[in-house]
């Protein structure tokens, strides 16, 4: 993983090149105050003050130069100078005129992250940003590392990341922070976690299903449960996906990646909580013992589920994991899942569909996302659609016919496993960026991670 700590350093007056970041509305005034050599360079580069304009500005000496970026991003945006971190020559930089780095440090770091597992690349140019916000450096570095963890896990091919590798990630976190890990694997799931077993039983032995649990912190502290969907590859099962739909299914463990990254942030900051991380990890494979459309599955909670679609498997494994989580009466429960295409149709890739029963939690969570530029969008747990889950032969179906309100009915399915007394949020997140933006390459991406972390810090920091 990228060593982000080397890229964000305290500003102690060491030599560095200036970054002039100017808002379009202030560009004319800024230019008028510059010496002739700067105005000449700006004109030669055809900089007109439009967002994205940039130019190298000559200094008084031959080897002295600075950088101009015209930017309309707000001052507190993480992405304000991310485009520079990806393009400037190797060196040390600071915002001109003592400008506060603020959240822009995060974008600076993430712009220099590279996923290099499968290809040889030239050694990365180190672009160091100096900041006077010394107290924020550690937090910014941890956030960048957590985001990179999600990206790297999601970008890894399914041949190299199965249930065992997710277990290894949890083991590594536990060893680093003094946590304990408990794993229930293979046929041992059949009685305690029958839906996890049913979904994962067709995979090969080395990719056997499992429920991974990590516990950390003072047992007397408020209990926080994080659940992440860990479908390491989703063929669709016997309701097999077309090839186009299967192409990105290495990312179907994106919920687990988010939960692991958030757990790491909690333990690194030593929040005063009792952390309970749960990852149901499976591969939804096809074999003679694969679960079938029409099968009636039992659940850890005791409900029965008519399986109407083997490609709606994520909610099944989450049902058993949520049941286990609520048995310990958590003060807060958050689950992350790459759950429905319906959420993406409604909201696109950038906005995780967010379902919350508690109004106070909903207000805090949405506000946290807005404050840290990690937006969420709330959808309703609409009681009127609960009847769509009715079954003729079981307590409920996993996937209603008709396709209406797919993200909502999936959330309503999960709600069957969470008592109303539990403060719970469900984030249906995409975990993938289809096209690049400054600081945010195409590929695996963390959506909702920083919002959830801001909430946890506010409640338990």
TrEMBL record:
It is an enzyme of class 3 (hydrolase). Transmembrane segments: none annotated. One of its GO terms (molecular function) is aminopeptidase activity. Residues 309-316 form the Cytosol aminopeptidase domain. Pfam families: Peptidase_M17, Peptidase_M17_N_1. PROSITE patterns: CYTOSOL_AP. Its EC number is 3.4.11.1. It comes from the Bacteria. Keywords: Aminopeptidase, Hydrolase, Manganese, Protease. The keyword Protease applies. Belongs to the peptidase M17 family. This is Leucyl aminopeptidase.
């Amino acid at each position: 993983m990228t060593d982000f700590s080397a890229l964000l350093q305290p500003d102690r007056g060491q030599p560095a090149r200036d970054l002039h970041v100017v808002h379009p509305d202030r560009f004319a005034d800024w230019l008028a105050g510059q010496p002739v050599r700067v105005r000449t360079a700006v004109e030669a580069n055809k900089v007109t003050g439009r967002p994205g304009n940039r130019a190298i500005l000559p200094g008084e000496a031959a080897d002295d130069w600075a950088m101009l970026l015209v930017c309309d991003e707000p001052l507190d945006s993480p992405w304000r100078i991310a485009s520079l971190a990806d393009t400037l020559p190797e060196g040390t930089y600071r915002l001109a005129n003592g400008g506060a780095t603020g959240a822009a440090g995060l974008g600076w770091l993430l712009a220099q992250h590279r996923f290099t597992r499968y290809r040889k690349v030239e050694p990365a140019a180190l672009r160091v940003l100096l900041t006077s916000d010394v107290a924020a450096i550690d937090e910014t570095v941890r956030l960048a590392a957590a985001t990179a963890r999600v990206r790297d896990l999601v970008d890894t091919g399914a041949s190299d990341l199965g249930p065992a590798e997710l277990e290894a990630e949890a083991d590594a976190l536990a060893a680093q922070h003094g946590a304990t890990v408990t794993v229930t694997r293979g046929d041992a799931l059949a009685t305690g976690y029958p839906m996890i077993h049913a979904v994962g039983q067709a995979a090969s032995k080395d990719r056997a299903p499992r429920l991974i649990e990590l516990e950390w912190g003072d047992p007397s502290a408020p209990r926080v449960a994080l659940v992440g969907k860990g479908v390491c590859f989703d063929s669709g099962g016997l309701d097999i996906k077309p090839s186009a739909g299967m192409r990105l299914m290495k990312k179907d463990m994106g919920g687990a990646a988010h939960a692991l990254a958030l757990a790491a942030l909690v333990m690194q900051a030593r929040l005063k909580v009792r952390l309970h991380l749960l990852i149901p990890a499976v591969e939804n494979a096809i074999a003679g013992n694969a679960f079938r459309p029409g099968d009636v599955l039992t659940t850890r909670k005791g409900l029965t589920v008519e399986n109407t679609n083997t490609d709606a498997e994520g909610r099944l494994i989450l049902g058993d994991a949520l049941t286990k989580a609520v048995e310990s009466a958590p003060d807060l429960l958050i689950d992350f899942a790459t759950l429905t295409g319906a959420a993406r149709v409604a909201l696109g890739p950038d906005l995780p569909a967010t379902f919350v029963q508690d109004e106070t939690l909903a207000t805090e969570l949405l506000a946290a996302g807005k404050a840290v530029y990690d937006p969420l969008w709330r959808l309703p747990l609409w009681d009127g659609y609960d009847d769509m889950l009715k079954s003729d032969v079981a307590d409920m179906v996993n996937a209603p016919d008709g396709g209406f309100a797919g993200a909502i009915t999936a959330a309503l399915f999960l709600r069957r496993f969470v008592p109303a007394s539990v403060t719970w949020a469900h984030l249906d997140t995409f975990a993938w960026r289809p096209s690049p933006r400054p600081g945010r390459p195409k590929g695996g991406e963390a959506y909702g991670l920083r919002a959830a972390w801001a909430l946890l810090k506010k409640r338990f920091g």
